[in-house]
Amino acid sequence: MSKSATRDPAWARWSLILLALAFLGLFLVLPLVTVLVEAFAKGWAGYVKALSSDDTGSSIRLTLMVAAITVPLNIVFGLAASWTIAKFDFAGKSLLVSLIELPFSVSPVISGLIYVLLFGLQGLLGPWVAEHDTRIIFAVPGITLATLFVTFPFVARELIPLMEEQGREEEEAALTLGASGLLTFWLVTVPNVRWGLLYGVLLCNARAMGEFGAVSVVSGHIRGLTNTMPLHVEILYNEYDFVGAFAVASLLALLALVTLAAKSTLEWWNRGEIAASGP
Amino acid sequence: MIEVEDVSKHFGNFTALDRVSMRVSQGKLVALLGPSGSGKTTLLRILAGLEQPDEGRIRLGGVDATGLGTRDRRVGFVFQHYALFRHMSVAENIAFGLKVRKGSERPSKEVISERVHTLLELVQLEGLAGRFPSQLSGGQRQRVALARALAVEPRLLLLDEPFGALDAQVRKDLRRWLRHLHDEMGLTGVFVTHDQEEALEVADEVVVMNKGRIEQIGTPSEIYDSPATPFVYRFLGNVNALPCNVQGGQAQVNGLHIGEGRVDGGGTAFVRPHDVEILELSPDLPQAKIRQVIVLGPVVRAELELPGGLVVEAELSRDQKDKLNLRRGQEVSVFLRKAKVFVGEGA
Amino acid sequence: MTAASLPLLRRTRVASSVIPGFGPTLGFTLLYLSLIVLLPLAALLIKAAGTTFAQWGAILTDPRVLSALSLSFGGAVVAALINAVFGLLVAWVLVRYSFPGRKLVDAFVDLPFALPTAVAGIALTALYSPRGWIGSLLEPLGIKVAFTPAGVVVAMVFIGLPFVVRTVEPVLHDVDLELEEAAASLGADRLQTFLRVILPAIGPSLLTGFSLALARAVGEYGSVIFIAGNLPGISEIAPLLIVTKLEQYDYVGATAIAAVMLAISFVLLLAVNLLQKWRRARMGG
Q: Less crowded by CB within 10 Å, the N or C end of chain B?
């Protein structure tokens, strides 16, 4: 429909579009292109060689493992938290919602720091950890915990508004029809929020695999043992192995692109079923 | 004076206006009446310059305004949902049109504040100048929207469903008030409505629209008493639409003579319920049987079944009903005081 | 157990819902929240509380700490301002105009959310270093971006952009076209309509986007440290200083800087919230 009174003249329209595209090209597209160009600076052979080192392989395995632990845990938490918050009324609810979003406003470095302060040798629980002959900081458990912290809100904050919007009637109907609580949850609640859940999982996973600051603080950077992919990128880069750094980075960039594509597909197919996108 | 000449407007495949022509004389208040999708709002928006017609011309005060944008038409437009600026107070809303004027055309601050004050008085909202739209009732918002439109001293006031979003009582009060205001200010005004009662009560002239065309233009009594088309008959007020047959200029419904038709053929006879008279059973007149009697306050509505099963609705006063002692199943005679016959398509 | 006591008991525990599972899910939520979020954050508070007055004084007057904090906050403010302008432009173009590839561009705006910060960091560094595509264009002009505070701002703009676009976009989408038509019918031109009608309507969301971008940029680490060059006192950001202190086993220093950062961010967000609240109250919701 032509709303002539609210249409901007063509010259204004196109200059604004071009300006916006130029800005996005400069800040988003060019960095992405750079990653690929640098990764292939020594051709396909150099790229493959960079990716086939043992340390790269172990960093990929560690990243996948950390994601495989943190994402399911955050799904369980997200479902429990959103169920509690959306289906029941209780005092302190809005405080709980704010606390769940808290990790978003904490610097990644501080997210790592707090675990060092808790479990590190000088930390509050440090002596207790040492007594039990385990390591948390500078080891895989610390990396997992720090990743859990930074990815903590993703699933929950996606599901809470969605479940709140859907109300309680369908669950109540299922209960009057004789379904048990658990059955109601699986047959009514989860299918209703499945796209939002998937969306939250996508974002959660992207962050879990890509987290740098928090993990960097607790990792100790032990090659082959406590280096995730982003940390490995840093090490290679600082050793002036640019092709290696960008080759590993290209895998992470690919992950980002797949995440974006899946996210957009979900959004276009399920308008209205997914709450506003977040970080 | 507004002149609309052969204006057409399409949205994709949909024809919103199909070669519409009309004129509105200076100082008149005109209603564009029709069902949704009839093109009335599109016509109003074209008058305002919010849309441009695909074909045809618009003249305002004798000057061609067809290509002119909204900003340059000096029309006041009152939107259906008021479109008040939420972040501005009532006074700021009203002053907006004066504040955005350029250079020497912009009145001084004192003049603006005085004008705002005068308008607030006019719309009876003194004391609410500092309020924000969210703190006003629907009727108050409506009056702010009107004051805002009047602030720029428009030569033409356009209102889109001005009472549509209000509840019944406020609606009635505002209608009378608008009529009064219009008489006082002598503005030319056009408003869109789908409510026939509103159009008949407020307007000097009513333009009945249907499917992008004008069906009839006339004063409220002309429109109501002598509808030009079957559509106008059906759209305005209650009416009995009886299938009839015209032969030799005489129209018959189930063998009963009902009136005259100009052309022979099948058609429809329209009879208003208050033109159906119920009499005591008499051999000279067609007979009917009372199917139902409903008392609606001072008015009584009766359903009559004519021989052959045709059902006709009649309206009569409480007195008449008591006099005839009407009850269900009673046999009576009917007389159709006035009927209009349309023959052919659309009838 | 009597029948009469049961409803009383239930009402005090669970607020009138027939849906089961309140106890277990709330319990799990609180336990998990406490273990993963609250307990570690408490460790920070306890550590900060155990810091003596003299230690605080020494840390907060250290010029290196002060310059790192002011770079993190100052750079974040500049970056958030740039993002407010260009984020609004991008949102406007995406909502108001149709052009080929619009949906693709829309999807691409989220790249900084999805791209690991380390990847963004090395890519931006490669671009803006004196031998990079952009850096080599700027060098003849005497402009250095990489390894200067300007580089810090560039990285902060990158990671903050989607916050502004994504908060403004839906609100801009919902701005009633009638408002703009009303402004036009009252004689306002497009620029006046934008400045006086549209901008105030989307103002709160722009402020929210600005503060989200700001909060993110203040704490940002991965994308900044590569391009910053990390010269103490010049291009060293506060999160990096925390890491440096940790590597030197200066837990007190690291904790103090972290506590100050959290406190300033908290005050900033609180101020923004109060401003929004005041605005809503003034306009009567």
A: N
Region label for B344, one of left (φ > 0), alpha (ψ between -120 and 50) or beta (otherwise): left
**Bigger pLDDT: B178 vs A25:** A25
* Number of C-beta neighbours around residue A268 at 10 A: 11
Using the 8-state DSSP alphabet, how is residue B227 labeled? -
Say yes or no for a CB contact (<8 Å) between A114 and C43: yes
CA distance to partner chain C, nearest, from residue A32 (Å): 7
**Band of the pLDDT at B38, cuts 50, 70, 90?**
very high
Whether residue B101 is predicted with pLDDT greater than 50 in this model: the reply is yes
Q: How far apart are CA B39 and CA B30, in angstroms?
A: 15
Residues (pLDDT < 50) of chain C are 1-15
Whether pTM > 0.80 for this model: the answer is yes
A132 phi, psi to nearest 5 deg: -85, 10
Mean per-residue pLDDT, B266-290:
86
Number of neighbours of residue C13 by Cβ within 10 angstroms: 10
Q: Where in chain B is the domain with CATH 3.40.50.300?
A: 2-233
- Collect all residues of chain C within an 8 Å Cβ-Cβ radius of residue B85: 179, 182-183, 196-197, 200-201
Q: State the amino acid at position B156 in one-letter form.
A: L
């908060």: which residue's tokens? C167
In 3D, which of B100, B67, B338, B138 has the Cα closest to residue B224? Answer: B338
Whole-angstrom Cα distance, residue B99 to residue B107? Answer: 8
Which string of b and e fits A214-253 if b means at least 16 CB within 10 Å?
bbbbbbbeeeeebbbbbbbbbbbbeeeebbbbbbbbbbbb
In whole angstroms, give the CA distance from residue C241 to residue C227.
15
What pLDDT score was predicted for residue C229?
Answer: 86
Report pLDDT digits (tens) over A58-74: 999 999 999 999 999 99
Confidence at residue C284, expressed as pLDDT on a 0 to 100 scale: 66
What pLDDT, on a 0 to 100 scale, did the predictor assign at position A260? 92
Give the up-direction half-sphere exposure of residue B198: CA atoms within 13 A in the CB hemisphere: 28
**C-alpha to C-alpha distances, A237 to A231, A243, B1, nearest whole angstrom:** 10, 9, 78
pLDDT band, residue A173 (cuts 50/70/90): confident
Put simply, the answer to whether C37 touches A168 (Cβ < 8 Å) is no
Distance CA B265, CA B282 (A): 31
d(CA C76, CA C261): 12
Q: Do A117 and C170 touch (CB under 8 A)?
A: no
Q: Which fold has domain B238-343?
A: OB fold (Dihydrolipoamide Acetyltransferase, E2P) (2.40.50)
Within chain B, which residue ranges are assigned CATH 2.40.50.100?
238-343
Helix (H) / strand (E) containing B33: strand B29-33
Mean local confidence (pLDDT), A123-144: 86
Q: Point out which residues pair with C185 in neighbouring strands.
A: none
Looking at chain A from residue 215 to 254, which residues have their Cβ under 8 Å from any Cβ of chain C? Answer: 216-217, 229-231, 233-234, 237, 242, 245-246, 249, 252-253
Nearest CA in chain B to A6: B50
Query: Helices (H), strands (E): how many in chain C?
Result: 16, 0
- State how far the Cα of B127 lies from the Cα of B143, in Å rounded to an integer: 14
Please state, in angstroms and rounded to a whole number, the distance separating the CA atoms of residues A134 and A128: 9
The ipTM, to two decimals, is: 0.89
Q: Helices A242-269 and A194-210: crossing angle, nearest 10°?
A: 170
Radius of gyration of chain A (CA): 23
A209 contacts on C by Cβ (under 8 Å)? 116
Which region, left, alpha or beta, applies to residue B56 given φ > 0 means left and ψ of -120 to 50 means alpha?
left
User: What is the chain A residue with the closest CA to C24?
Assistant: A80
- For the domain made up of B2-233, give the CATH fold: Rossmann fold (3.40.50)
